Amino acid sequence: xxxxxxxxxxxxxxxxxxxxxxxxxxxxxxxxxxxxxxxxxxxxxxxxxxxxxxxxxxxxxxxxxxxxxxxxxxxxxxxxxxxxxxxxxxxxxxxxxxxxxxxxxxxxxxxxxxxxxxxxxxxxxxxxxxxxxxxxxxxxxxxxxxxxxxxxxxxxxxxxxxxxxxxxxxxxxxxxxxxxxxxxxxxxxxxxxxxxxxxxxxxxxxxxxxxxxxxxxxxxxxxxxxxxxxxxxxxxxxxxxxxxxxxxxxxxxxxxxxxxxxxxxxxxxxxxxxxxxxxxxxxxxxxxxxxxxxxxxxxxxxxxxxxxxxxxxxxxxxxxxxxxxxxxxxxxxxxxxxxxxxxxxxxxxxxxxxxxxxxxxxxxxxxxxxxxxxxxxxxxxxxxxxxxxxxxxxxxxxxxxxxxxxxxxxxxxxxxxxxxxxxxxxxxxxxxxxxxxxxxxxxxxxxxxxxxxxxxxxxxxxxxxxxxxx
Length: 470
What we know:
The chain is an alpha+beta fold. It folds into four domains: 5-156, no CATH class; 176-271, no CATH class; 277-371, 2-Layer Sandwich (D-amino Acid Aminotransferase, Chain A, domain 1); 391-465. It has 15 helices and 16 strands. The protein has helices spanning 5-13, 37-41, 60-69, 94-99, 103-112, 125-134, 149-156, 159-164, 166-169, 188-202, 239-255, 326-343, 377-390, 409-416, 453-465; strands at 17-20, 52-55, 78-80, 117-120, 176-179, 216-221, 230-234, 267-271, 280-291, 297-307, 313-318, 348-357, 363-371, 395-402, 427-433, 443-450. It has an eight-stranded antiparallel β-sheet with strand order 13-12-9-10-11-14-16-15.
C-alpha cells in the first residue's frame, strides 16, 4: 500500500504536515529572483490523503492528472495563494503572497490547516509570520528552540555545519577546509594558496603523485542550498582557473543582492574524492530520511545519482541494488541526523555522499552535501513508493528532460503520447514544467518508470526518438 511522505511525517510527528516550500527568503539567498519552481510544486506530489501544501498557482490540467492517476487523492489540499491565477509564476514568495491576502482568505486557510504543523523548507521571518498568521506551530524545528527558529534553519542549511560536526558525530567528509570571509570576498591569490595547500594534502591519497593533475576540487558558497553556488575547479590548478571560479562566485553573490566588497559568508573548498585515480568508487548516492521528534532517523530510500563529468546533476535511479551497503549508510546517516537534531532541526533530511571501498575492502562513505528540506529526490522517491504499490518490481529514474520546444502540460502530454505515465503501462510521470514565460530552457522534470530494466531502457530510447534529450 502506498504511504506518502506526508503520511510518514504525520505518523512520526503526531499531526498532519502543511508544507511551505518557499525558496525566496526574507533575506534573499537565491540567485533566481522568482524562486525555485521545482521546490514550490514539489509537495503536490507528496500529500497522499493527509498532507496540505501552501503553494503558488499550479497548472490545473496537471493537478487533474495527478488526481486521476491516484497520486493526489484530494486536490483541495493544494491551497493556492497569489492574485495571479495564470500559469506565469507570480512575483514574490508563497509566504509573501499569503501574508498579503485579505483577512477573509487567511481565515479560510486557517480553518483548512487547523491542528497541522508547518513544515517550511527555509524558516525565515516570513515563514514565522505564516506560522503566527495561521496559528500553527513550525514542525521541523524542535519546540524548545522555536524562539531561535530562524538561526536553527540557517545553520541547518550551512555547508560548513555538515563539515564542522563530522568529528563530533563520527561520520566522514571529503578533505577540505572552510575559508572565512570577514568583510569581503577572498582574493584570487589567497584562494590559490588555500587550493595549493589542499592539493598537497590530496597527494596523501594518490598512489602516483603525477596523478594530481587528474584531481578536481569544489568551491562552495556556504549560504546557498544544494547545488547552487558550487563551482568545479579541475587540475592542474592555476591562478587563472581560480580567478575564473571567483568571478562565477562573485556573479552569484551579486545575483543574490549582496556586495562582494561587504561579504561575510564562508567559502568551502573540497577535494572531489571520486576524482582520485585508482579509487574504488561504488557510486554517488542520495539518502533520504525523516528526523522524528525523538531524534531518531526514519530511513526512506537510497538512490544512485548520475552526474556529468563537471558534477552537473543528471538523475537518480531506484531501486538501490547494493543492499549490503544499506546498514553502513543508515548508521552514518543516523549520526548526521543526531547532529542536526541537536542543533534543533527535526524534518526531512537528504544527504549526498561518495561511497567507495578502501584497500582493505571496507566501505568508506564521504558526505559532501546535506539538504534539511524537501529536495529534488523527494517527489521521485514518493513516486517510486506509489508506483511500487501498483507494480512491485518497477524500476525508475529521475530525469531532467529537455524538449525540442517549450511546453505546457497539455502539449507535454501530446508529445509524450503513449509514453505518458498511466497505471498500466507506467512511463513518464511529469513533476514540473517550465513555460516560455518562466524560462528559456524547455526543461521538464520527470520520474520515468518501467516494469523492469528492459522496459525502462525501451522508454528512454523512445524518448530519444522524440528528440527529447536527457
